[in-house]
Each structure stands twice: as C-alpha cells, then as structure tokens.
Design a protein that fits this description.
This protein is mainly α and 471 residues long. The chain has 20 helices and four strands.
Amino acid sequence: MMNDVLSVTDFLNGIIWGKVLVWLLVGAGLYFTVRLNFLQFTRFSHMFSVLLGSGKSNEEGISSFQALCTSLAARVGTGNIAGVAVAITLGGPGAVFWMWAIAVIGMSTGFVEATLAQLYKVKDRNGQFRGGPAYYMERGLNARWMGVLFSVFLIIAFGFVFNSVQANTIVDAVTGISGLSQEAAGLIVVLLSAVVIFGGARRIARFSAIAVPVMALVYLALAIVLMIMHANKLPDVMYQIISSAFGWHEAAAGALGAAIMNGIKRGLFSNEAGMGSAPNAAAAAVPYPPHPASQGFVQMAGVFIDTLVICTCSAAIILLAGPQEGEGVVLVQNALNSHVGNWGAYFLAVIVFFFAFTSIIGNYFYAESCVFFLKLGGRISLFIFRLGVLAMVMFGSVASLELVWKMADVSMGLMAITNLIAILLLSGTAVKLAKDYSRQRKEGRLPTFDPADYPELERKIAAGVWDKNND
C-alpha cells in the first residue's frame, strides 16, 4: 500500500514539477520583477521601513506585523531546517544557491499576491478582515469556481498535508533525544495544537507575534556564532555552493538538474512565494500606510527573512560540519552536535518544536480562511474540520519522512499553479497600485488608497473596506 502511494506521488510530481510548475514559477517571478522595476532591489530599504511601522491594529484586523508573524509562523518551520537538509542531501550544496535564487525573484511574486489580497479583502460576520487568493479570484477575475478550486487545494495542503510534515519533523527531533515513542510524542503535539486551534484567529496571531521572532533570533544567533567560529571555512563553503550550482562535474553526472529542482522545491516550500498561502494572512491586516501595496512590502520582507536569512543559517550549520549521517532534521542535529557537543541535538529539538508547532498553527489559519470562503464556517463543520487537522497531525507523527514530503510537493504544486495563473491575470492591477504608492511617496504624502481613483474596481472591491481611508 505504501509503495503504491509513493508511486502515485512520484508520477504526479513528475508532471507538476517537471513539466509545469518550475517554468511557471520562475517565469512569473521574472515577469513581476521586470514589471515592478526590480522592486526587491530598488525598494529594499523601504521594505524594512514599512515593517518597522507596521504595529497598528484595530477591531477589524490584526496589525501588519502580526500578519507577517502569522505568515512567518507557517513559513518558518521544517522547510528552514529539515527542508534545507533534504535539499542538500538530494541536490548537493548547489541546491542552496537555487533556494536563494527562487527567493530573490519570489520577493516580487510575494509583493503582488499580498497587495492583491489586501485590495480584495472582505469582512466576515464578526467584522474582521479575511481574504487571500480565493477572494481575489472571485472578485478580481469574477471566477468563483477558480477560488473554490484553490480553496480545496489549500485546505488539503495546509490544513492536512503540511501539518503532517511539521508533526513528522517535531517527532523525529524529539524521539531521538527523549525516549518517547512516535505515538506518544504525536499525541502531545496533537493536544498542544488543539489548545491553540480551538482558540481562534486572534489567539493564533498573538501566539505567533511572540514565538516567531524569539525562536528565529535564537536560531540566527547560534548560526552567526558558528560562522564566526569557523570563519576560515566560509570561503570553501561558498565555493561548494556556487561551484555545484553551476559546475561542469555536476552537469556531467546528472546532478545539476537535481540541485536546481530540489533547490526550487524546497525554496518554495520554505518561503511560499507564489504558492498563495501568505496572502491569507496579509489580507487580515490593517495596513500602514493605509494602502494595499504597503502590505506587499511587508510580505516581501517575509520571503527575504525566511530564505535568505534563516535557510542560510541551516545551510551553514550543515555545510560547515562536513559530511554527516542522517536525513532531514536528524542530519542537522548531527551537524550541530559536531559543532557544540551533545547538547546541540537538545537545543535544536526545542527550536524545531517551536518552528514546526507555530507552522501548524499558521497553516491552520490559512486553511480556516478557505473554509469560510467555501461557506463551511458553521460551528459543526468547523469542529469537524479541526478534528481532521488534528488527525493529520497524528498521521504525520507516525508516517515516513519520504511519504509526507512527496505528498507535500503534490499539494503545494497544485496550489501554486492555480495561484500563479490568477496573479498573472491580475498583475496589471498590482502594478497600478505599486505605481500609485510610489507616486504618493515622491509627492511627500503618506500613501493612502482611494477607491475613487479606480472606478474600474468599484464593483469588485468589498463595500466599506477602504472607504474610511478618506473620511
């Protein structure tokens, strides 16, 4: 049975990744980069200026900073540790370069999808903002069928499959140092997840705003210390990454394609740019400046932090240690042990727990938004959905590493293809908003979105969502 499932996932991944998604992902990122005048480079410092001023919220939505932390809670997880290890194991050090490359061009993609999510957001029955790809497909493209399709893919991916990946990594990290069985460790993760999941979106945002910055800074600090300790090895590590990303030896051995494919796959899983997940958090924010494009800058920063900073830390820990045994998170634990001694495995287990646990919570937040889009947000249906999420957390705790990662590749591939088609079709609107934002800044004004400037969008934007900007 297990072999049959693996065969199916291999077949689907061959079609999705080998024939469609890589070209679509890279092509869209380059297209957005050019149309936005290389925004990720020319407005790099402004990206952080917006982030520093993004702490305001109200009764209608969470702050932009909380939205970023919620998206980072889903982004910063197993992809940043186990995912980097998987990429290096299957694709060699060169896979790290391709993770960086897909993140750099993906920053423009992240800007577009977050900006569109803000523009087309709505208020739910509790008066709070919700939105994301399903909503801009319905409102921007007048294609609810497409939004429904995307919602189903996202619920499968983030509500179920990705949470099994996160749980698998937590259990791998914990059982190796605690003596707990997979079942016992999985049950603990299920119980802790249930406490937060049943607490609602605001509890998710509050928890993420505290946990994500702390765990990321601790992990970053450790990696920086190790890089300083092994500064003499850094040039060699960079040579390994660059040479195997483009090397003739790898091309002759057929490994160059593996480096590119695994770098892009794991890069997308990690930073999610173009996948259509982060816009669900972006739409829930009250942006400052009060313009859709400001949230685009905030989420663009999320892509940078996730891959160019945190994934690079994991790559440094692995490559500076030299050849090690193990796969996934176990490989990183062994590498860390070689640097600092046996306490490294315990330290990483704690970091992995918080990374992956907040990812489970962030993943649930995304999936819940799509449950509401499908009009299945009633008390009973939501309760059943939450039980299904917890069941997949338990499944991932006892399933094989290979199975859960291949399932993740299929589900995120289907999501990304649907979302990328939508944002390419809506790219003209995103570019207009980016230009409007830049024009107001050049005039010395606080960028503020006025729906009256866009009569062609009047019937597509939810009533009352943006009017207060001009009160």
